[in-house]
Structure formats: structure tokens, C-alpha cells
Amino acid sequence: MGRGAVLLVVAYAGLLLLGALGLWALEGTPGTPNASEWDLATAFLFVTTLLTTVGYGSVAPLSATGKAFCMAYAVVGVPITMLTLTAAVRRLTVPLVHRPRLYLQARWGYSRRGAAHIHFIFLVGVTSGVLVLLPAAGFYVLEGTWTYLDAVYFCVISLCTIGLGDLVPAEQPGQPLRQLYQVAVAAYLLLGLTGVLLLAQTFHRLAELHGITGVAGGISAPDEAAELLEGTRDEEKPARGGQGGGGSING
Predict the structure, then answer these.
(1) Model's pTM, two decimal places?
(2) What is the mean pLDDT of residues 193-198?
(3) CA distance 57 to 146
(4) Has residue 216 got a pLDDT over 60?
(5) Which of 184, 174, 196, 176 has its CA nearest to residue 135?
(6) CB half-sphere exposure, 136, CA atoms < 13 A
(7) How many CB atoms lie within 10 A of CB 70?
(8) Cα 237 to Cα 233: distance, rounded to the nearest angstrom
(9) Mean pLDDT across 102-108
(10) Among the residues of 28-168, which ranges form H helices?
């Protein structure tokens, strides 16, 4: 992980922590309408669902100052979250999308479209397993009252940023390590949404290969770099026969 990526993660974590501390101070103070429902971990999970627009609605600010803070924080934080997740996807595109495609083309002889198809199917399977099926098993064990279908339903609804709020983790009283559990759910939402965006971007590029979409996405620069890399490799092969290499275009 480069220095820029580390700084980005630290800065965004600071934004989340700042929001959590602010809401905890405003809503968790004795005398506020629902002070008993707020602690730092609850506030951290809340601001994560707020900035990712998941918004379960199981807990919300009731004081006037808390609502004002929430509005201002969302206006600033939601665009920052979009930029942060987009930057994360951009960094992940080369190692997780373009290099596997190039490997399939170079090692197994797939065409560009064929490699894109195989890679997308594989990515869908991995995303489903890592971001839905495995976390669902964890929620099924930790929640106790959820069925496995409930847990899968929660994961899918959350990662689609629908957040119906009919199932919310870490809400049962007496759950062991409840605060750590809430922080883990917040981290899952951020990582999960990054994975979903990566999958969506990959599908967009696959559609472009078939001419379905004509507008390139904002994260497509690595694709162009990969194409240039492929072209460079093809040109290097005949150029190796001579040291000059400058006249190898027609050769």
C-alpha cells in the first residue's frame, strides 16, 4: 500500500471518528431524549451508515443540535465518501482486474472479450463468497435469532445501500463485545461497498467491450494503460531481432 493510500485511509478514518465523537457528545449527554441508546461505537456505526447512505434508521439524533450536526456532516461527508471509495476502486482495478485479464490472455490464449468474461464470472463468485456468504455465516452465529437466509438478506440489502432497517446487527441487549461488533459491521460496510463498486466498474468495462455503453467511466484510465501495455509487448517481439528498433512498425 502506497503512502497516498495510507494517508487516504487515515484521513477518512479521522472523518468517521470526528463524526462519531460529535454525535456521541451531542446525543449521549445525560438529559438528551435518547442518551441511553448512544455510545461511541453506536455513533461510529451510525455515521458509517449515514455517509454510505445505507441508513438503517434503528437509532437517530433527536436533539435539535444533533440533527443540525447530522445534516452538516452528511452534506460534507457523503461526497467525500464517494470520492474515497472511487479512489480505492481505482487503486484496486489494476491488481484485481487488469493483471488477471492480461494473465488469461498471455497464459491461456483467451481473446480480450473471453478473458473479460472469465474474469467477471470469477469476480462475481469471489465477491459473493467473501462479501455475502461468509459474512452472512458470521451474522447468523452472532445474532442468534437470525436465520441464515436473514443474514444473507441483510448483507445484500446493506451492500445495495437500501438499508430497510428490519434487520440491524448488534442491537440485542447483552451481546458479548457489542461495541467491537458494531465497529466491525461499520468496517464491513465500507469494504463491502468498495467491492460492489469494483464489481460494477468491471461490468461497465465488460459492457463497453460489447459496445453496449459508449461513455467510459471515470475509473477507466488503467484499462487504457493495460491496452498500451499489450500493444507495447506486441511491438517488442519483432524489435528484438535488431538493435535499432526504430523501424519495426512496418517490419
Answers:
(1) 0.81
(2) 96
(3) 19
(4) no
(5) 184
(6) 20
(7) 22
(8) 7
(9) 93
(10) 40-51, 64-93, 99-108, 112-128, 134-143, 148-159
